[in-house]
Design goal:
The complex is a heterodimer of chains A (about 80) and B (about 400). Chain A has about 80 residues and is an alpha+beta fold. Chain A is built from two helices and two strands; from the N terminus they run ααββ. Chain B has about 400 residues and is of the alpha/beta class. Chain B has 13 helices and 13 strands. In chain B, strands 1-2-3-5-4 form a five-stranded mixed beta barrel. The chains are: A alpha+beta (about 80), B alpha/beta (about 400). β1 of chain A pairs parallel with β7 of chain B.
């Protein structure tokens, strides 16, 4: 899976697996190291996703043709 | 009225009806009694008898009034009916024209709620086995509520603070009044038909039982039940419970609570990530430490401490083998040498020339053929004698054969 297309959920589930595997510590060192590297890059990816996220809010309203159209929803409070 | 006049039945009933209708008290009154013989006709009109222990009266509720009933009237129910008293001229019978029925004791909405709750519960709409799990990290959340009011803003604000990664799609609907249930149903179905979201939140802020009534509507309940997308019901305040709450996959006590249930909290996720980071680093450290210990163990053994040790061992073994091989070779050579000497000696012993030194001689004819019998000899034949140190040509003088 390409790193950039991975979702947060997929990244977290892979991360949790990696951490468990690393903690078992029963694989060859080279494999541990490449897992560790993968985990580090996944953590970076997740943190980026969390940091960069900006909430998107839209409102679906019936357009002139009767089909719903997406409009930005302004906080009118 | 003229005493001698003969009236038709229709005329008489018409007069009686006029009398009834002209009586102010009859035009608007309420009567308490018990429902019996309750029938709903295909026309949509409701017919029943209202009775007490001694008496009864026929009642009718036309469709236009009956559609406003929130609960299902049942035989034996104690009720108060409101309406007017009049005459049905065709039968010459007076009856109660009912515009509303209120159950005794509890309110009609409460009764309607209990009735629908029992009905849907019996049908299995609230079964835990039908409830869908909510997505852990919803990608798109459809909010089906009023676009005005505090509820929608509370939800959007909390969703944005906790988990801004989820896109929020607001489907504005009316949340009270007769239009509300079909609009809510339509929005739930629309979201499903277009796979608009992976989570739906529907609800509204607090209000009276009448205000919340759309979420006690059977159509809304069924739409929530049929939704492929998990639904969180978020109606009113903590103590308010609606049919939607029972049928939804998750119930939130308030709209704000729904936003908290819907998404994880970003800061908790950050904590979890640092937890992962710490755990994997610790696991690697431990791993490397173990390897180092293992390495030290190996290093402490002689083979590794003294790198030439195994080579010396081998060299020693090689020397030993070389020695062994050398002496074996020598022994073999000596043996061969001795055999050769023995062979040479026996060859020497067998040489005919050696015999000649002992005084023997060898005779051969003119062709060089050895002569070993007198029978082949003739007188005067040349003969060559080989002696130990030379040859002599001779001639046979006489032949004497041994007897």
């Amino acid at each position: 899976m390409k790193k950039d297309s991975i979702t947060y959920e997929q990244a977290i589930s892979r991360l949790s697996q990696i951490v468990n595997d690393l903690e078992k510590g029963n694989m060859p060192l080279a494999d541990s190291l490449s897992l560790f590297e993968e985990g580090t890059s996944l953590m970076k990816r997740c943190t980026e996703l969390l940091d960069a996220a900006e909430q998107k809010v839209v409102m679906l309203k019936k357009g002139a043709d009767g089909e719903p159209v997406e409009l930005p929803f302004e906080e009118e409070a | 009225m003229n005493e001698n006049r003969v009236y038709s039945v229709s005329e008489l009933n018409g007069f009686v009806k006029e009398l009834f209708d002209a009586t102010p008290m009859f035009s608007q009154l309420s009567v308490r009694g018990e429902l019996s013989n309750y029938k709903i006709y295909p026309s949509g009109h409701h017919y029943f008898t209202l009775k007490d222990s001694e008496s009864s009266i026929r009642c009718v509720m036309f469709k236009s009034s009956a559609v406003r009933l929130r609960f299902h009237p049942e035989n034996g129910m104690s009720v108060t009916v409101s309406g007017r008293l009049s005459v049905y001229p065709r039968d010459g019978a007076y009856q109660f024209y009912c515009s509303a029925i209120m159950p005794e004791g509890t309110g009609d909405l409460q009764l309607a709620f209990e009735q629908l709750k029992k009905k849907l519960s019996d049908e299995g709409l609230f079964d835990a086995s039908h409830k869908k799990p909510l997505p852990h990290y919803p990608d798109r959340i459809a909010i089906i509520t009023s676009s005005a009011g505090a509820a929608v803003h509370d939800m959007i604000r909390i969703l944005g603070r906790r988990w801004p990664m989820s896109k929020v799609i607001l489907l504005p609907v009316r949340v009270q009044g007769v239009e509300a249930p079909p609009e809510i149903v339509g929005a739930i179905r629309y979201a499903n038909r277009h796979a608009l979201a992976d989570l739906i939140i529907t609800g509204r802020g607090g209000g009276s039982i009448e205000d919340l009534w759309a979420f006690n509507d059977e159509r809304v309940a069924r739409a929530i039940y049929e939704s492929e997308i998990p639904v969180i019901s978020a109606v009113g305040h903590e103590p308010d419970v609606t049919i939607s709450d029972y049928v939804a996959d998750a119930r939130a006590s308030t709209p704000s609570n729904a936003a908290e249930i819907a998404v994880p909290d970003r800061s908790e996720e950050m904590d979890m990530l640092s937890g992962f980071s710490i755990r994997s680093s610790q696991a690697m450290d431990k791993r490397l430490k173990n390897l180092r210990t293992e390495l030290d163990n190996y290093r402490s053994r002689r083979v590794l401490r003294d790198a030439s040790a195994p080579i010396d061992d081998r060299r020693q073994e090689l020397d030993y083998l070389r020695d062994k091989l050398g002496s074996a070779m020598e022994r073999a050579l000596a043996e061969k040498r001795r055999a050769q000497v023995r062979l040479a000696a026996s060859l020497d012993a067998m040489s005919p020339l050696r015999v000649l030194t002992r005084g023997y001689s060898i005779a051969s004819d003119e062709h060089g053929k050895l002569v070993w019998s007198v029978k082949t000899l003739k007188s005067g034949a040349p003969l060559r004698l080989r002696l130990s140190d030379g040859s002599a040509d001779c001639r046979v003088e006489s032949i004497e054969e041994d007897q």
